[in-house]
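Consortium newsletter contribution from the modelling node. Members have asked for a concrete example of what our holo predictions look like. Here is one, prepared for the adenosine monophosphate complex that several groups have been discussing at recent meetings.
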Amino acid sequence: MKSANLVIALTKGRILEETLPLFAAADIVPTEDITKSRKLLFDTNVETVKLMVIRGSDVPTYVEFGSADMGVAGKDLILEHGSDGFYEPLDLQIAKCRLMTAVPVTDQTDSDVLKVATKFTNIAKHYFAEQGRQVELIKLNGALELAPSLGLADSIVDIVDTGKTLKANGLEPKDLIADISSRVIVNKASMKIKNAIIRDILSKLSTAVKAK
Ligand code: AMP
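And here is the predicted structure:
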């Protein structure tokens, strides 16, 4: 009997470039150059293992609903999505950055209700509720850094790596919300049904992460 396919959803972009060497070390190599193709589903050297390459924000959804058995996604997107629908067994320790609040360098806000622009509205809602701060959240999908200077928000919640993007827009990081890196997530039913192959891949990936 032919064994069932195992579909792994990878996040495209900069995370993919750091993910592929770890999967190669775990003996999973796509049969063509993923980074140069417009295809979304790829065969690998292992006949039953397929790789999907999609937006990071869609990886938790595909894994939760089982269209993908496993996935690699940034912790920021996992927190924003909510992680009840899958397991998160491994930190790949790649694409490390911080999720932070940031304010104008000349910040003088003392209003009771802070206006916060972010694409991470669920994370921000929980964070400010824990801080006991009343906020008005403004959902933006890009160019967040412009919101304070244009009067749309007092503060933003965003990913910070080097801090150069903030600085170039007259902002500075303020409070750390979470340290971020890319994680492997696994569909709960797949973990039971395809346990042997998933355990094998996780174990090899874990060895590759430790060897780095
Ligand atoms: P930087 O100027 O180095 O602080 O980079 C900040 C911008 O790069 C942010 O607005 C993010 O959109 C993006 N960025 C940096 N690192 C990551 C990461 N690991 N995952 C996703 N986005 C990132």
